[in-house]
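Problem: given the chain below (443 residues), write out its structure.
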Amino acid sequence: MSYLGGVMAVGALSLYHASEISSPPYSFTGTFRFSWAIGYSLLLGVATYAVGLPDQPTSIRQATWLSFVAVVLASLGISIPQLATGDALLPRFVVFGAALVLIPWQVALNLLSRSGQQRDEERDRVLLVAEPAERERLIDDLRLEPEHAASLVATMSAADAAGTEPGLTPLLDEQARVLATVVVIDRYAQAEDRIIAQAAKLHESGVRVRTLQGFYEEWLGKLPISELERASLFFDIGEVHRARYGRTKRVMDLGLALLGLIPLLLVGIVTLAGNIVANRGPLLYRQVRVGKGGKHFTILKFRTMRATPPGASGDQADGNWTEKDDPRITPFGRILRRTHLDELPQVWNILRGDLSIVGPRPEQPRYVDELAAKLAFYDLRHLVRPGLTGWAQVKYGYAGDERDALEKLQYEFFYLRHQDLTFDSRIVLRTLRATIGGRGSGR
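Solution.
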């Protein structure tokens, strides 16, 4: 409904302008303006999604502001080619009229979305059959950013759910007591015949039954820590097992990287000037990262921290984990980081084949060695080309230590399991949403 509103507003206003305002009237669908109206509708849709509408704002004020930002971005997007060509590709009545209509429309949808999310949380009542440690992990994960809202209403151990005497149905009784609509069973509970028999009856009655891994994938967009090693072999990876996907993705990477050379040049000039005033030192920051197949490469960024003397320790010299608000970041560098403009030089890494637009974020060799020694399945992420952005970045954000790296690995495995062009496009749009919406993404 959010994106359909833009299509309907642009279409209706274009038809009205063509028949009632223009002199002489013209056929809207029979002119070049029809194509531009479709383009403007797409711009409105992308801008709306990028700022997080309709579901992200938590107040009417925030929804109004983000709606305004979205229509301004789309209006600028359609106005720039009109100014460049000196031609009215779309009437101002359509451009600004649609913008005025869509602000209250998006605010109203946000109100509906927030009330609907509350109903989702009430509807998706989860009964978990697992050990206590799994319960604590799930509670923490549901506090993050689930793909579908849910609330954990009860937990049982496998022994309690199975029961000790024939004829008892403790799982059925607990589901009826808490009115659970989703029953989640970990791998140990799946080995209990008495639990499976009860789960079958719940399934027949309309209660949804999921494995722990299935619930994590469907509701949370990740794989659970306890299942990572076992699951690491049992799925195809698009870049490894589907040659056509790999070739198509590389062509798209090259096309987008070539387009990215233009903003890289413009931002590079501004950054050079900014460095002279507020961030003295080298323009570029170079750091060794681990890429596809474990191959090392040098990643490029605009420097955002104080220049590090040769031989010194620190993140910009392959040292410790960088903190989110690292004191070494200069004021000008902070602006570059918040806008993610410091990442633009990686366009060159994409052209060279070191990076893809979407993929697991590359890590430093030191951290890769540490994590690979602790996690036997960690190197699986190096089967694909690392990315400028990725599912872990838009879902989890910044990684400041090994615990964060393990959390992000759950999202990276989910990406490997579902890797395709549709998912890649979704991640790109979610990256725009995270960046424009001010939440940023992990580095």
